[in-house]
Every structure is written in structure tokens, then in C-alpha cells.
Amino acid sequence: MKRLKLRGSGIDIPVMSLGTWAFGSDAIWGKTDEAEAAETVRRAVQTGIVQIDTAPSYGMGKSEEILGRAMKGIREQVILSTKCGLSWGERNEGQLHVERDGYRIVRNLSAECIRRDLESSLKRLQTEYVDIYYIHYPVEGPHAVPVGETMDELNRMKKEGKIRAIGVSNVTPALLEEYCANADVEIIQEKYSLLDRRAENGLLAACRERNIVLQAYSPLEQGALTERFRQDRGTPQLKRFASKPWGRPACHERLLQMLDGWSDLCGKYQCGPEHLAIAWILKQGDVNVLCGARKVSHLESDLCGADIELTAEETARIRRDAEAFCAG
After folding, report:
1. Active site (annotated) includes residue 58
2. Got the DSSP string for 104-172?
3. 0.90 surpassed by pTM
4. Which one of the listed residues 58, 134, 179, 269 is annotated catalytic?
């Protein structure tokens, strides 16, 4: 599998990584079988998907706890990433992010808060350091702090050896520039899929200009760009699709038509639409694809996408189809 080197730290990551949001067993994803999730982690490492991502807010610490137990004996083989800036509980104040599963999750990037986030994550993950530490979301309004305060604290964490590289997530090109003025930002985690290409509005170009790796999360739109979604012809009732356009009957039908239209490509490559969606992102340059999985079968299926080498014509065709769908 092709690999990408982070500019400053020299960390070498594969072009595909494992996301563990679903490990958290929240209302969006449902209950997790911990033994199965742990086996998925070990299998990922065996197959070369050694970069594994989590966050404190995934199940209010549960994803980190499961991952910490799963990494026993293999921690040094894992390029581990987690995040700061989203917290919950009585001690935490900040910009409201979301209320879910009875918790009020807030954004806070003060030095005190992100230090507390890191120390809590290290305990849950049962490790002394994190390879890549992301700012999960920017903070706006009265709870915002100067970017310099946040980045200075992250720089201190690097000097202490508690984190190896700094990453940011969910940013604009302008905010990225401000972050970079205060620290060595080596990787960006951003939503990027065939159905959501906002990263192409300046952010991808900014990453290329600064030699920053872009890590694409939700490349399959939480399951909407998969064969399973295509086979289940009824309008999806899953909670994670409730706010999505394809959760509505008319739009859902058009999405199915788009996926059906790729049957010749699926036949050629002996794959499903999910593999085409992954392969398409990998054709966009030095981009890492972050695929969520908590079952070995899902992980191994995602791997097939990295093996497909779409032609330039096929890549353009898939883009046109997605643009036509989104425009409709």
C-alpha cells in the first residue's frame, strides 16, 4: 500500500487509515461488540493499516477505552491519533457542539481544556504518547481563545514527547493559515467524499501548497455509498441519515440510480460502489482515506478500494455523475 510521509515529524502513514467513531456505541451507530472491534484493530495492523484514529467524544471516551485495550502488545506498531477540543461533563464550558445520548458536548480550545483532554485520553488509551493530535473543531463566539494560546500548548506537548505531530480538523483555508503561523501543522482531517467535495474549495490546494497531508473522513457518507445501501431499496430509516438529502424518498431514489449506473465499473473491477468511491478519492492526489470499521469483514472490504486503479476517464465519469446528483 502506498504511504505518505508527514513533513516535519517524518511519520509515515498508509494511504488508508482506520476510523473508530463507531466503537463508541452512541445513538448514531448502536451497540459495539468489543471483542469484534478489537479483532478489527489487530487485523488492520496485520494488513498495513497501522494509522488508527479516535477521539474522546466518540462514545464519551468509550472508543478510546476499547482501542486502548485492543492495542495491548501492538502499541508500537500503531500510528495512533486522537483529538482535543470537544468535552463534556460538569467542569466543561464552551461553545455548544451537540447534545447526544444525554450529554452536552462543547467546544473549548483553551490551554487548560486541551491539556485536560490529552491527559484523559492518554489514560483511556493506556499509552504515554499520541502520534498525531488533532484539534477536533474550531471554536467561535465568546468561548473562543486566541489561536496562539491553543497552538502554544500543543507545541509544549510536542516538546514533552506526549504528542509527535499536530493536526487540525474541520477548518477553512484562512483558519489553516492562522494555525500554520503558530505551529507546524502536518495533517488535516476533513470531510471529503463524492457527495461532499467542499474540501476542493481551496483546502486541497492549500494543503498541496504547504505540503500538508489531507485525511478524508466519511468517504462513504456513513454507508450511503455502499452496495448494502444500494441493495436495500427502501428509503433508509437509520438515524445517521435523518438529516441527509438521501434520507428523503426522491433524493434517495436518484442516489440509487447513480449507484446502479456504475454496474459496468463494478463488474470490471469485481467490486461494489464503496470501492469505487474510495478509489476515486485516492486519485485526487496525496490524500489519506479514513474508513470507519468495527468488523473485520468491513475492514477487508474497504481494503479492496485501495487496490483499484481507475483510469482518468473513469475518474472523470464518476465525478460527473456525482456532480449531476448533487446539482439535482
Report:
1. yes
2. EEEE---HHHHHHHHHHHHHHHT-S-EEEEEE-S---GGG---HHHHHHHHHHHHHHTSEEEEEEES--
3. yes
4. 58
